[in-house]
# Entry
Amino acid sequence: MEGNPFYFYTSSNLVELTGEKANNLEELVALLKRCTGSAIFYHVFQSYRDRHFAIDKYHSDFAQWISNSLDEEALAERLGSLDVRDFTTIRALRESMIQIIDDHLRKHPQSGNRQGKTPFFFCQSVSIVMPTHYIAWNLEDFYQVIGKIGIRSIHYHLIEARLRLGIHTNDFSNWFRNSLGMERPAQRIEGIDIYLHSLEEIRKKILQYVEEEMKSPCRPSV
# Structure
């Protein structure tokens, strides 16, 4: 039985300054409470995509600023330990970040108004989703496309998908599981640690998993 095809999309973001900035933790948490969801998305999710060629200490812009500008390493580590794969809404992510900072300020009130070396400028983005001309009907098609699709497409389907779908998975795994009936590659892709690998390294892992699946004698017929 042939499953539904996988249509590859990509996304681009228009970035703008919000005009708001934080000079210390108290100002940062106040802005986190009222900033747009697109600002949270930009400083957490898009920052990872735009730095795909290198693994920074923290993927979150907030954690980076707290570490580099405020020298609050313990707080930066707590924020940096938040796994975006655990969140399916921006609201839940925002609440977790606010809770962590509020908890830190309760324990260390002197940190609240300590000025940073540089301000944190809030940006926000508008995501523009565009279809590509790539379509996969089976594993072989998927393997060929993943090897050449743009890195923004991989980010869109692997990471942004969680917020769009509102579930703890990604577009690739969702397609393998529900269209091709292949649980093993679905689980293996879900298990990729995005914090240990750049997007190019993740591409190689996906290619490896799909190649192994194509060679598997237990592969289901689609």
